[in-house]
Design a protein that fits this description.
Blueprint lengths: L13 E7 L3 H14 L6 E2 L7 E9 L1 H12 L6 E11 L4 E5 L5 H15 L14 E5 L8 E10 L1 E10 L2 E11 L6
Antiparallel strand pairs: 1-3, 1-8, 2-6, 4-5, 4-7, 5-6, 8-9
Bound molecules: adenosine-5'-triphosphate and magnesium ion.
Length: 187
């Protein structure tokens, strides 16, 4: 299964990923933040409704894989957590402008690892690179500043989603297919 092959005429094949989705106010703030940084006119900003944090990218999968992934997700027992968005950076090779935490909170890492583990039972091969928690705010960006702190924003995470990516000529559109709650931390 190719993760990046977008061309398929088979209707049962879908491009899926697991993600965290920010509340709309936070997405709007982040969109504006990217606009302030990209005043030089470079970069293609991600529209607020598309801003997200990817947990696991499944790529193109068939209906039985999706079914397996949904059952696997239902077995996750991870806890709610706060994600602090504290810094902005730019991966110069890809031109991606992003925001993220100074340190990946352990419950986020645990959620990603649990997902990878249960999805392995569906034949999923997890990303080999270390997990880099980030929300992409723009592409083809060439901001003058490298990584720098931003005014911290706290994002309370209490659920995760299975998302379908629809590819259009003018960019991707995302559809949240299903959501699962995270457990409240033990008192
Ligand atoms: P586009 O590809 O049209 O520019 P996109 O990258 O936002 O848009 P998708 O390619 O469908 O949309 O990817 C959905 C999410 O999964 C994005 O957050 C993307 O960064 C991530 N992703 C895509 N490909 C991979 C991959 N091979 N490994 C890990 N994450 C990926
Ligand atoms: Mg992509």
């Amino acid at each position: 299964m190719s993760r990046d092959d977008k061309s398929s005429s088979k209707p049962e094949i879908q491009r899926l990923f697991f993600a965290l989705w920010p509340p709309v106010e936070l997405s709007r703030e982040l969109y504006q933040l990217a606009g302030n940084v990209l005043r030089d006119g470079t970069g293609r900003r991600v529209v607020p409704e598309n801003i997200h944090l990817t947990l696991a990218f499944l790529g193109l999968v068939n209906a039985s894989f999706r079914e397996c992934a949904e059952q696997a997700a239902a077995a996750i027992r991870a806890t709610c957590f706060t994600l602090m968005l504290e810094k902005m950076g730019n991966w110069s090779k890809s031109g991606i402008l992003w925001v993220g935490p100074n340190q990946t909170p352990p419950p986020l890492l645990q959620l990603v690892q649990e997902l990878n583990a249960v999805l392995a039972g569906c034949g999923y091969e997890a990303e080999q690179r270390p997990y880099a928690a980030h929300l992409t705010l723009a592409r083809q960006a060439r901001p003058r500043q490298a990584i720098h702190p931003i005014e911290p924003r706290a994002w309370e995470i209490n659920r995760f989603h299975l998302v379908r990516s629809h590819t259009h000529a003018d960019g991707a559109r995302y559809e949240i297919l299903r959501s699962w709650p995270l457990n409240s931390p033990a008192a």
